Amino acid sequence: xxxxxxxxxFIAAITxxxxxxxxxxxxxxxxxxxxxxxxxxxDIVGLCSEYFQSSLVTISREGEALTINQGETxxxxxxxxxxxxLAIAGATLVAKVFKLxxxxxxxxxxxSIDQFVVRENLGLGANSKMPTTVTWQVPTTVxxxxxxxxxxxxxxxxQPLAGEFTADSTSLGTTxxxxxxxxxNSLVTFEKSRTTIAGQTYDVTTLPVAxxxxxxxxxxxxxxxxxxxxxxxVQWLQYANHALTEANLRYTQTESLTIPAGxxxxxxxxxxxxxxxxxxxxxxxxxxxxxxxxxIPIVRxxxxxxxxxxxxxxxxxxxxxxxxxxxxxxxxxYTTPIPDTTIELTLLDASGAELxxxxxxxxxxxxxxxxxxxxxxxxxxxxxxxxxxxxxxxGEVESxxxxxxxxxxxxxxxxxxxxxxxDVAIDGTSFLKLNMPILLFGVVLVTFFIxxxxxTHRKPRNSAIPxxxxxxxxxxxx
Length: 478
What we know:
Layout (H helix, E strand, L loop, with lengths): L2 H16 L21 E2 L4 E2 L9 E4 L5 E4 L3 E10 L5 E12 L11 E14 L3 E10 L7 E10 L5 E3 L11 E7 L8 E9 L2 E2 L7 E2 L5 E8 L6 E11 L8 E11 L4 E8 L6 E10 L2 E11 L6 E7 L10 E8 L6 E12 L4 E10 L5 E7 L7 E10 L2 E11 L5 H4 L1 H9 L3 H29 L22
Parallel strand pairs: 4-11, 14-20
Antiparallel strand pairs: 1-25, 2-25, 3-5, 5-8, 6-7, 6-9, 9-10, 9-11, 12-13, 12-15, 15-18, 16-17, 16-19, 19-20, 21-22, 22-25, 23-24, 23-26, 26-27
C-alpha cells in the first residue's frame, strides 16, 4: 500500500467517523431520538374522561385545627392535586365560606357567608401537586361557631372543572375552622328555601333549566332575626358560565333595604339575556362588614349548546423529541353531525409562531368527547399558548387563549434548576454504554494506522550492504 493510498484511506475514515454522533446521556436514560416535527390529526378519540375527570382533582390540608377570632385574618395552605393525564393552565380557584348549620357540611342548609377568588391563572401539571395559600379576612360582626371553606376550580373560559356543578357543591374539598370572640346581634340572611326561579321553588342541589327566550324572574326572601331594625344592601351579580371573575361579570343591580326587627322582605331580579347559555347569578347581602351569599346557576334551554368544557396539553413543559397532544373536550345534546360547526386548536410558541393546528368540522357528539392534535417539538419549550375557537354557521360561538407558562405551575413541574443541572451532568457508565461502538471503531482505526505506518517505514531486506563489499568499490559522486 503506497503512502498516497494510506492517506486517502485515512481521510475517508475520518470523514466517516465525523458523521457518527457522539451521545452524552444521563444515567438510566436511553439514546434520545433525533427531534423531528411530526404533526398528525385524528377525529374523535373517545370520551373526555380518558383525559380529564373532575373527581381526580382534589384539595386537602394537613395540620392542626384552625381557630381564629372575629376581625382577624385567616391564612392557611392547601394542596391542589391533579391526578389526570392532562395539564391545564389559566384556571381560577374560587373559595366559598359557610357557617355550619348541622353536624356535617351541607350546602343546602348551611349559610353561605362569603366567596372570593383565591387565585387566577393557575397551572396544574398532569399527575402533580400545587401548594396554594388561602387568605380570608374574618368580619368583626360574624357569629361565633364552626365554619368551613369549600372550593371550586374553573377553566379559562369560565366552565367548571371541579367542585361546582351545582350552586354550592363541596366535592373538591373543604377546610374547617372555628371562630371565637364576643357575642353579636344576629345577622340578616337569605332564606334559601323560599327562593324561586320562574315561579318554581329552587333546589340548591340541582341545576335549573329555563326557556331560552322567556324572561327569568328570580325571587328570594331576606329576613332579619335580630332584635333591632337593620338597613342592608342587596346586590345581584350576573356572571357568564360559573367562574366568579370580573371577566365573566355581565350585569349588576343594587338596592338598599330597611328591615324591621323580626321581619322579612321579598326581593327579586330579572335575569338579563346574554350570549352564553350558562348563567351564574349571585345575590349578595351586606350587613355591616358581614355578608350572606346566594348562588343560583341557570342554564337556558336551546341556547348555544355546543361548548368546550376543558382544554389542555398532555405534557408541559414541552421537550424536544417527545410527543405532546392538544386536547379539547366538547359537549352538546346531539347524536347527529352538527352542520357548519368547526372546532379549531392552535398551538403557538412564545414568539407567536404556529407550532401545530387542528381543525374538525361537522362534529358528532353523544357525550363529552375529546378532540386531539399530537405534535413533536424540535426544541424544549417552557412557554406556549393554546388557542381554542368554536365556530357555528361561520360565526364565533367561543374563542379564548390559554397561556402555558412555568410561573403558573408548581416548581416540581418545570424544575428549571434541576433540569439545567441534569443537562450538563455526564455519567461515565452511561457514556461508555451508549458510545461503545464508536469507541471500538476509533481503537480499530488507530491500530490500523499504526501498523500501516510501521509497514511503510520498515527497511527492505535487499537494501543492506554486503559485508564483503569494500568501500573503494562503492560508487563515488563528486
